[in-house]
Amino acid sequence: MEKWRNNIRNIAPYVPGEQPKEKDIIKLNTNESPYPPSPGVRKAIEGFDADELRLYPDFVCSRLKGLLAKQCGAKESEVFLGNGSDEVLALCFMTFFNSKKPVLFPDITYSFYDVWCSLFDIGFKRIPLGEDLRIKKEDYFGENGGIVIANPNAPTAIYMENGDIEDIIKQNEASIIIVDEAYIDFGGKSIAPLIHKYDNLVVVRTYSKSRNLAGIRLGYAFASEPLIQALEAVKNSFNSYTVSTVSRLAAEAAAEDTEYFEMCRGKIIKTRENTVRELEKLGFETLPSSANFIFTTHKDINAEELFSYLKENKIYVRYFKKPRIDNYLRITIGTDEQMEKLLEEIRRYIK
Ligand SMILES: Cc1ncc(COP(=O)(O)O)c(C=O)c1O
User: Which residue of 206, 216, 220, 332 sits with most ligand 1 atoms within 8 Å of its CB, as the best mutation to test the pocket?
Assistant: First the structure.
């Protein structure tokens, strides 16, 4: 065996959804938006002077922070930025979960959480969702070293009322509570304004989904000033320049185009409701979705086989071979045309 082998970190990584090279795939597997970024984003990128790339990015990003802060009546000093919400969440885990007690999150949730716990040596405990695949707030009232809740949860797409999350926060004054709101714009109400009531609440958001900008990698968090300062210190001990100049410009333009944002999310919600209705006619049962994806099952259809059939026919959805959810498919909401093609293919499969 190579002598250096024992010095190497061995870890089971997060496995992202496939990013196929072929252009003719209907890609409903990674919860991206089917719509292009706002026209203002295109203009900002086209008007960008490449000479500027000689310099390091602006690491304060005051204007962008100001635009984001306005969304929830916060101050710039209550906003943290990062290279996608994955990075923001990873830095939150590193900064806030340093207790000997385990961090709690649901057994069925974003599968990156346990990877970060392993990476940073954080003890954790998976709390089983109820029979209905919903989070039971009482399960989070005991001792813990922190809590992470995706709201809406992924991959179930189920939204938890903010009042229930607030009950969890009230019971956990000594822990940091992270609420991952990657999908909040598709049917939920953000809990971010409560950062002014609870100084142990962190709300993480992203421009990858409802702002149609997965490619620029822009994530952010709202929290009380002491928590943001702690996050900044950890970030600056790792990499000071996490938001590139081009990403910052694109995000600023997107933040200003509220009308386009409202139009896109409105279309996605409408397409989602149509898709759920059509799937129901075919015998599928879909969990109530407040996200830009649905989680659906059929008692007479093997989800893994349907997943493979769709893939052979150039439609990519997501399948998780995990206990309790191994007969579900997670399907991102695309355009009406894409969803019609998906439904046609499913009808053909059933026949
Ligand atoms: C629940 C949840 N949180 C966070 C992310 C990360 O998103 P991004 O890093 O693109 O901001 C995802 C991505 O799919 C997600 O599903």
Answer: 206
The CA 83 to ligand 1 mean position distance, Å, reads 11
Domain residue limits at 269: 20-36+259-350
Residue whose Cα lies nearest atom 3 of ligand 1: it is: 182
In this structure, is residue 154 part of a structural domain? yes
Mean pLDDT score, 167-188 = 98
Residues 6+ apart with CB under 8 A from 199: 224, 226, 227
User: Rounded mean pLDDT of 158-180?
Assistant: 98
Structure tokens given for 316: 């990519």
Q: Is residue 198 part of a domain?
A: yes
Region for 119 from its dihedrals, namely left if φ exceeds 0, alpha if ψ lies in -120 to 50, beta otherwise: alpha
What whole-number distance in Å separates Cα of residue 89 and Cα of residue 336?
32
pLDDT at residue 186, rounded to an integer: 98
Look up the CATH number of the domain holding residue 203: 3.40.640.10
d(CA 73, CA 71): 6
pLDDT at 1: 77
Q: Are 249 and 269 in the same domain?
A: no
280 and 174, same domain (yes or no): no
Choosing from 83, 204, 208 the residue with most ligand 1 atoms within 8 A of its CB, the one to mutate for a pocket test is: 208
Whether residue 184 is found in the same domain as residue 291: no
